[in-house]
Amino acid sequence: MTDGGAAGFVEPAYASHSLADVVPAVAAALGHPIQPPLEEARLRLPDAASYVVFLVDGLGAQLLRRHAHAAPFLSELMDDSRLGTAGVPSTTATSLTSLGTGLPPGSHGLVGFTSRVPGTDRLLNALQWDKRVDPLEWQPHPTAFTRLAREGVTVTSVNKREFRDTGLTVASQRGADYVGADRVGERIAGVVAAARQRPSLTYVYDGDLDWTGHRFGVASSAWLQQLSMVDAEAEQLRDALPPATRLVVVADHGMVDSPAESRIDVDDHPELTDGVALLGGEARFRHLYVARGAVDDVVAAWRSTLAGRAEVLTRDEAIGRGWFGPVDPGVRPRLGDVVVACTGDTAVLSTSVFPYEATLVGLHGSLTPAEMLIPVVVA
Fold first, then answer.
1. For residue 177, is pLDDT > 60?
2. Is the pLDDT of residue 40 over 80?
3. Do the beta carbons of residue 325 and residue 295 sit within 8 Å?
4. pLDDT value of residue 41
5. How far apart are CA 80 and CA 105, in angstroms?
6. 141 and 289 inside one domain
7. 271 in the same domain as 202
8. In CATH, what number is assigned to the domain containing residue 356?
9. Is 80 exposed, middle or buried (0-12, 13-18, 19+ CB in 10 A)?
10. Do residue 231 and residue 87 come from a single domain?
11. pLDDT at 37 over 90
12. What is the dihedral sign for C-alpha 222, 226, 228, 229?
């Protein structure tokens, strides 16, 4: 993990301690590696015959540290030496696919909450998907779950029934046996049953903390109460699992609250829409798809208006910074011609294009420590 310079960004720790390194580290700990021997700098986990990976959506390491009193179980286990990073952008669809594939965004191709479908004027919403887009073509690489299953490991995903067979699930988690479970008790029972297999990896997801942060903010009492519930869930899960099974708790990103005075609506700034053919990404990390020959003008306008409030880079500059890891040729046009990563608590909205974002309090997607640093808690 490296500092991102004047903006105070945390650069993604691909091939070291990123979310994409978690399942390969589990595979090595199970004795069924799915990649060449780990380098010293890479994430290492204790050996075990069975692993459970519990992903808590929105549980950034800084948030967990700040509110340790509300999450005593997880906080006591959090070890700074095992902190990880999300990928870029630090958003759910990108992160879940990095976890499930073991690949950085530039390889797996889910490069944001929304991104352009090349050759069209449409955005793919990676959470809602688009039936015209085949997830097997959008993300053609075998997942880490698939590779681990080929090694003879039982791989199970325990998640809400509504997520079964969605585009995002197919792209990110195919290869795992799917167990539908909508409530906490049902999830825990499903995980415990799956974890009895040896060797095995069981993945389980909880999205309620993220939803609460978006709706009420991470400074709200509602978010703090939800954190306490997540902590209790993790502790109950650990108690229900046999001692020989390891539990690793991770997050896909953190979150920051963005007050009204920190928000910029591009609809109110004509200079920000000039030359922009399509606005993608999300409020903390925008992909700008621009008209031919307009890149320099768009960069200049956005840098002038957002001076001190965002990093504005061309696609090549962002790739050169390593934000997306190695970028496959087919993924390159999905990235904005220009990308905008917000600093502080700034948010860049478009109430005409993304009206729902204006209703959210907590946001994520950029490279600040609050969004990028994630816990890797082993119990």
1. yes
2. no
3. no
4. 66
5. 25
6. no
7. no
8. 3.30.1360.180
9. exposed
10. yes
11. no
12. positive
Give the position of tokens 């050759």: 119
Domain count, the chain: 2
How far apart, in whole angstroms, are the C-alpha atoms of residue 107 and residue 155?
22
- Same domain for 33 and 49, yes or no, is yes
CB atoms within 10 A of CB 293: 8
**Residue-averaged pLDDT of the chain:** 96
Evaluate whether 204 touches 55 at the Cβ level (below 8 Å): yes
Residue 367 pLDDT > 90: yes
Q: Distance of CA 108 to CAs 99, 103, 215, Å?
A: 11, 6, 29
Do 341 and 304 contact (CB within 8 A), yes or no? no
Spatial distance between the Cα atoms of 9 and 312, rounded to a whole number of angstroms: 13
DSSP-derived 3-state class of residue 123: strand
pLDDT for residue 110 is more than 60: yes
Domain of residue 16 covers: 2-256+368-378
Q: What are phi and psi of 240, to 5 degrees?
A: -80, -20
Predicted confidence (pLDDT) at residue 158 exceeds the cutoff of 60: yes
Q: Are β-strands 50-56 and 200-206 bridged in parallel, bridged antiparallel, or unpaired?
A: parallel
- Please, are residues 91 and 115 in contact by the beta-carbon 8 Å criterion? no
Please write the tens of the pLDDT for every residue from 241-297: 999 999 999 999 999 999 999 999 999 999 999 999 999 999 999 999 999 999 999
Torsion of CA 173, 174, 180, 181, to 10 degrees: -10
The CB-based long-range contact list for 275-281 (8 Å cut-off, 24+ gap) reads: 275/301, 277/121, 278/116, 278/121, 278/123, 279/350, 279/353, 279/354, 280/112, 280/114, 280/115, 280/116, 280/123, 280/336, 281/89, 281/112, 281/113, 281/114, 281/115, 281/336, 281/339, 281/340, 281/365
Q: What tokens does 145 get?
A: 């779950």
pLDDT interval class at 309 (50, 70, 90): very high
Distance from C-alpha of 272 to C-alpha of 335, rounded to nearest angstrom: 18
Cβ pair 313, 302 in contact under 8 A: no
